[in-house]
Write the structure tokens for this entry.
Amino acid sequence: ADAVIMAATHTTGQPAVLSAELVRAIKPGAFVVNVARGAAVDNEACLAALDRGNLSGLGLDVFPTEPYPADGPLATHPRVMATAHTGALTTSYFAAGATRLGAAITNVLAGRAPAHSLDGRRS
């Protein structure tokens, strides 16, 4: 694959899902993106692969420890693009969220179930 995107769950104390062995097996020149949990990826192995030229880039929205230090290697490496666990927080995200929240409040006040009810009720 040209990109490996981690969106898997991870249990604290367990080994990384994307282990050093799997990082070494990734196609040379590929990108790794982690939007799952910081410890789901062996970040040290990814940094080593970046330095060897095996990976072209690493995208992170999560870190092994949060808050992650601004001077840490994952934040300062030239081929790491990092966000502070806010990669999805865009203007359009907030606009859509506000619109849906307004509609849900309107429905509840009118005695109807909200359109996106978590308990399965639909308006």
Summary: The chain is about 30% helix and 15% strand. The helical segments are 20-25, 43-52, 73-76, 91-109. The CA atoms of residues 15 and 86 lie 25 Å apart. The longest strand covers residues 55-60.
